[in-house]
Amino acid sequence: MNASRTARERVRAELIREITDIARRHLATEGATGLSLRAVAREMGMVSSAIYRYFPSRDDLLTALIIDGYNALGEAVERADAACARDDFTGRWLAVCRAVREWALAHPHEYALLYGSPVPGYAAPQDTIAPAVRDTAVYGRIVADAHRAGRLTPPPICPPPPAILAEDAKIVRSLMPDVPDDVVTRAIAAWTGLFGMVSFEIFGQFNNTITHRAELFEHNMTCLGHLLGLPE
Amino acid sequence: MNASRTARERVRAELIREITDIARRHLATEGATGLSLRAVAREMGMVSSAIYRYFPSRDDLLTALIIDGYNALGEAVERADAACARDDFTGRWLAVCRAVREWALAHPHEYALLYGSPVPGYAAPQDTIAPAVRDTAVYGRIVADAHRAGRLTPPPICPPPPAILAEDAKIVRSLMPDVPDDVVTRAIAAWTGLFGMVSFEIFGQFNNTITHRAELFEHNMTCLGHLLGLPE
DNA sequence: TCTCCGTCAAGAGCACCGCTCTCTAATCGC
DNA sequence: GCGATTAGAGAGCGGTGCTCTTGACGGAGA
């Protein structure tokens, strides 16, 4: 009874996994707009309508891929951070930057799904929120650790943030406990700077202009790290 | 003969303009993937195949919208810069930042078309390159002007860029003449930081997190300006 | 053991899409 | 005015997401 029910559920789970695997492969080669339920069904030897037993709509399949993508990126970032000495805060920051960039270069279409133009008519459901901040959580820990260790020296070039930003800082602080407001705002600046750089590279804004992208990235992330207040 | 030929050409140009106008309206409401030649034709009271007399493919229509978008953004940036005192370099930088953000907020789908995920299978033709750097050209002039005026003081937090980046700096320097390599790389960092911030806001990464977006933007752009070396 | 009910694949079908082709009508250049 | 060019209409092809119905299968309870 239990065994049989789980047998049924198991084949169902297996099929769902197979569908997402094929879909992810299609996503990687054709991009999000080229992802078609019918093509996935065709490759599985199924009729297209059968897919709807497992994913009620194309958007639901896309949601599954988005969650997978956030988790894959988050895991890559976690691994990169874990490989560093805990008190090498600059090294951890740079490792996270490189992990984001390398994952994006290896999975450009998935990166586009996560950080590019949102799919129109598509509203990310609640399930995506937790995986979406997995990478940010790692970053938050680095900032918090560095601050707690007293290794975050505010650069002389930033004015103090306006008082009204304290409200937002309160929310962000859940990812980087005990960090003062000015550090929070600089942390946001560095984080958006990282993704701005990666997006420019992935989305083609550097075409015909920048050729030594790894070196430029490395250098600019170093600058951003110093903007954040990280040591040499 | 001339008058009659231009009469035909004039109605043709008029129709092309009408098509792009309707298409831009559809783009603004439905987004790029929701833009359909058939819907545009329907709204014009045309049969769908007739559109192909004017745009050989959907991608060509999209190209026209992209060029228009770059020009609209470029013009907004030019106007913002022109409204500032020539020697108020920090003011010009912030004006450009605000112009980019406000244009993006007013035209999110067009912004996504320009700076979001590239449309798969779509390669931007040569015609898009010149309009694409219209905003960047304004920025380059600000940096070059500030440097020429001796108002660009390198912040103490950036190491010198590696020598190999000199090659890329040579190309970027066409937009900001006579600017040394380290300023070029910091200029790129500030520019990508601006678009990273705007993209995060437009693409929804600030949802459920940042509410005082204008204030955060203002503050972070100020920081980036100082990273670039702009005065108080 | 038999029956019943839930699950599933399959197929037909709807409305839409980009795009091509042919045919006819209007228009322009000479 | 006549031949050449251009524009629009319509049918049609293969594709899409999605819905609905039908019939087969298999596990659960009488």
Number of helices of chain A: 11
Q: Low-confidence spans of chain A: pLDDT under 50, at least 5 residues?
A: none
Note the quaternary state here. homodimer
Terminal CA distance of chain A: 63 Å
User: What fraction of residues of chain A sit in β-strands?
Assistant: under 5%
Radius of gyration of chain A: 21 Å
Principal-axis shape of chain A:
elongated
How would you summarize the topology of this molecule?
The structure is a homodimer of 232-residue chains.
Chain A lengths: L1 H29 L6 H8 L3 H4 L6 H25 L6 H18 L1 H8 L13 H4 L1 H15 L17 H7 L8 H22 L10 H16 L4
Helix pairs in contact in A: 1-2, 4-5, 4-6, 4-8, 5-6, 5-8, 5-10, 5-11, 10-11
Chain B binds a DNA duplex (30 and 30 nucleotides) through helix 1, helix 2 and helix 3.
Q: Can you offer a commentary on this structure?
A:
- 2 copies of one chain form a homodimer.
- The first copy, chain A, is mainly α and 232 residues long.
- Chain A has helices at 2-30, 37-44, 48-51, 58-82, 89-106, 108-115, 129-132, 134-148, 166-172, 181-202, 213-228.
- The longest helix of chain A is centred in the N-terminal third of the chain and has 29 residues, at 2-30.
- The mean pLDDT of chain A is 92.
- Chains A and B meet through helix 6, helix 9, helix 10 and helix 11 of A and helix 6, helix 9, helix 10 and helix 11 of B.
- Chain B binds a DNA duplex (30 and 30 nucleotides) through helix 1, helix 2 and helix 3.
